[in-house]
């Protein structure tokens, strides 16, 4: 996924360069390309830090933690959608009735853990 993101950033910078350079010159194209690169690179780093890293499933719900140890979402499972064995979407509702949506790709977890989470989510969503 990081390779695809890096290729997207390169393509975006090249597109900006190709459209800005003929109109405003090489210097402005270089500055604009550098700004676009910085914005996309920082967004990529921020996304990687906030990506779910640890899941804790308890009797009263589920909590999701980021790689930096920040609690990203917590609550009981109120909705579940599953696309084959590839993707699981959970809807968590916290005590303040706020809803959090969580996408879990199958390759984020071990296959048995992914199946177990899918079964638990389907059961919790229908209760």
The outline comes out as elongated
Mean pLDDT: 86
The structural domain count equals 2
Q: Whole-Å distance between the termini?
A: 35 Å
Order of helices and strands: HHEEEEEH
The oligomeric status of these chains comes to single chain
Strand order of the largest sheet: 1-2-3-4-5
**Structure annotation, total helices:** 3
Give the CATH superfamily of the largest domain: Pleckstrin-homology domain (PH domain)/Phosphotyrosine-binding domain (PTB)
General description of the model:
InterPro entries: YgfX (IPR009883). This is Lipoprotein. Keywords: Membrane, Transmembrane, Transmembrane helix. It comes from Paraburkholderia piptadeniae. With 127 residues, the chain is an alpha+beta fold. The protein folds into 2 domains: 48 residues; 74 residues, Roll (PH-domain like). The protein has 3 helices and 5 strands; from the N terminus they run H-H-E-E-E-E-E-H. It has a 5-stranded antiparallel β-sheet with strand order 1-2-3-4-5. Helix 1 packs antiparallel against helix 2. The radius of gyration is 20 Å and the shape is elongated. It starts with a helix and ends with a helix.
